[in-house]
Amino acid sequence: MKVRTKIVICAALAGLTGCASPTVLEGKYSEADGWRKGTVVEIGPAKSLKRSSFYDCRTEASDMEGNAPYVMVAFLRNGHPYARAAKLPTDAQLQVGDKVYVNFKDCNAPIPKRSS
Q1: What would the pLDDT profile of 62-98 be if each residue is shown by its tens digit?
Q2: 42 is a domain residue
Q3: Which residue, of 12, 24, 30, 41, is most buried by count of CB atoms within 10 Å of its CB?
């Protein structure tokens, strides 16, 4: 009886420890730092994006950047759908439908494509 109880306790502790470890995407994009898997849903000038965005970097853009290209990325956070509007990096070759990583906490973070 005691052996079974010890096995059950060890298995439960191992399971809880595994759930408590932080999720890191591709070994460098930590969910704790705000990174999420997303999909590009819209690209265009800041003022012409039609989809609303809960995390919107356009509010930080000056009027002079009104025609700068922005990207709208849809992602899930805690199982709920959100969107992030961010300035399209100059070196990014993104298109609508691309699978990317997005950081909802940092407007200056890059928007790298996902490998899967």
Answers
A1: 556 667 888 999 999 888 999 998 888 878 789 999 9
A2: yes
A3: 41
Say if strands 29-30 and 69-77 run parallel, antiparallel, or are unpaired. unpaired
Q: Is residue 5 part of a domain?
A: no
CATH number of the domain that residue 69 is part of: 2.40.50
Burial pattern 44-56, b for ≥16 Cβ within 10 A else e, equals eebeebeeebebb
Structure token digits, residue 83:
């969107």
Residue 4 located in a structural domain: no
* In-domain check, residue 11: no
Instruction: Tell me the pTM.
Output: 0.72
Q: Using the structure block, give the residue that is written with the tokens 């265009």.
A: 44
Number of structural domains (the chain) is 1
End-to-end CA distance of the chain: 47
